[in-house]
Please model this.
Amino acid sequence: MKKQLATILLAGTLALGGCSANEAGSNEEAPAATTNTNGIGAGNDAPKVENWDAITEEYRQFAISQADTFVIETDKFVKAVKDGDVEGAKALYAPTRMYFERIEPIAEALGDFDPNIDARENDVEDKDWRGFHRIEKSLWEQGSTEGMDEYADRLLQDVQLLRALMETVEVKPAMLVTGAVELLNEVSSSKVTGEEERYSHTDLYDFAANVEGAKKIYELVQTELADHDAELNKQIGDAFANLEASLATYKNGEGYVSYLDLKQEDTKKLSQLLDALAEPLSQMGSILGA
Model:
């Protein structure tokens, strides 16, 4: 594995996300697109962010830090699985996954890490199904870790490989603003419906982590956003606060209650709060010229 990681670290720089361009239309008199020093296409009237390099580097360091802890916690989880410690593995399962859920857009951009680590049953062919949810089914449905050693070892290898590739990541501005919205889309498509953690019902952990990942991106561009559109900035900040306050009511110690404890009105409210956040958040890219 060390040789494999070393080879990958020498592979060169991977660029995540493209630089989007606001191109001129077919009108010949329309102003031509200009490009700022970060390679971001923008019209003459589009606002520019002068410190994109500092913002994207800070996010890269955040993602690497999350990945570092993800490796450490996955190692603990894998050890519990291989030791046959069902209750220990169950206790580690959801908190460990949160580190991945906060930085999921990066995993998706780096190749097959998302399906390899996070695929649910029937997302892929059974022969290819591995990762957390394969082990989740055994822990909660069978109440056993029997036959899971190979999947546990493969999971740790995938997580370690993800961390190694992240060392070469070049985060682009477009990746940030689209990544924030993608994280909320993840919540809307699977977490709020209870589909993600169909055996453990620990969906609220994933829900909270996706929101935290999106909020980190917002916090990094918040100052620039406030300069360009103070009203939108306030709307997004208020929407995050409302969603976080609602999530806090489902806290159970350091974690969250089972998703089965939520009533229909609870999930409806969470869905409405998500929509109230996703719509203004989706406008950040055009405002910031990313």
Summary: Residues 173-290 form a domain with the A middle domain of Talin 1 fold (CATH 1.20.1420.20).
